[in-house]
Amino acid sequence: MLTHCTQSGIVELWTSCPENLRKEGEPMNNVKLKEVIQNSGIKVSALADKIGISRQSLHMKLNGERNFDQGEIMSLKTHLHLSDDQFIEIFFSDGVDRLSQKETV
């Protein structure tokens, strides 16, 4: 488990750098996530099945009506083959800028 924030090892940021996570009610970058889904060629219903939620629930989460939980986010990262940069841009507040500041300290 990482004890500091770096772009490599992004998965461990959940527990090592909770200040970088989007706060409750703070919107994720759903435009970017929808773009990645569309470019992946995976149908929304198939993606919902892969991450273990209903198609309706996925649509609500993509539209910001509900939040993804940690397991769903990690499953999205896996099934959409999100790069670390994409993962940060979509799910973390202030994106790479905050991580870069931590790395230079």
Keywords:
single chain, 105 residues, mainly alpha, 434 Repressor (Amino-terminal Domain), 7 helices, disordered N terminus, disordered C terminus
Structure description:
The chain is an all-alpha fold and 105 residues long. It has one domain (10-104): lambda repressor-like DNA-binding domains (434 Repressor (Amino-terminal Domain)). The chain is 56% helix and 0% strand. It has helices at residues 13-16, 30-40, 44-51, 55-62, 70-79, 84-91, 95-104. Helix 3 packs across helix 4. The longest helix is centred in the middle third of the chain and has 11 residues, at 30-40. The protein is globular, with a radius of gyration of 14 Å.
Please sum up the structure shown.
This protein is an all-alpha fold. It contains 7 helices and no strands.
